[in-house]
Design brief:
The protein is an all-alpha fold. It has helices at residues 9-18, 34-48, 57-84.
Length: 138
């Protein structure tokens, strides 16, 4: 069974996933705590097992990873479409649960675009003393 296309199951799964920030929020204090993350995955597994009896932690990690990467890809397309400003070039979403995953667009995303240069260029530090001249061997 394809869980991603199950319109009854996915909203429940996403809501439970949202309630476990240690699995998706990189600045959460328990994000790097493997024990807490495994416990959170076990909680998710409880709701997945009735739908897919063969599901395990590895399956959940793959499901979550796929869901996140698909959302982030769609999010990037939406952002690029909005930045372009062309009215006839608006991106049409293909992910039916996109709106439910907006919590992933928080601090887990890198800042958009290149980092702006500093406001003032760094001033060179004055050199004190003599310049060292390097002798070369012949």
């Amino acid at each position: 069974m394809d869980l991603v296309n199950d319109h009854d199951f996915m909203p429940i799964f996403i809501d439970m996933f949202r309630e476990l920030p240690c699995l998706w929020q990189v600045n959460h204090p328990e994000y790097k705590n493997q024990t807490k993350r495994k416990a959170a995955l076990d909680n998710l597994l409880v709701i997945v097992k009735p739908v897919i009896p063969t599901a395990d932690i590895t399956y959940l990690k793959i499901l979550i990873g796929g869901m996140r990467s698909t959302y982030l890809r769609e999010h990037k397309k939406v952002q690029d479409s909005q930045r372009s400003g062309a009215a006839d070039d608006i991106y049409v979403l293909r992910l039916w649960y996109y709106d439910r995953l907006h919590f992933l667009a928080g601090p887990t995303l890198p800042p958009p675009g290149p980092t702006p240069p500093p406001a003032t260029p760094p001033t060179p530090e004055p050199q004190l003393g003599r310049k060292r001249v390097r002798k070369t061997r012949e």
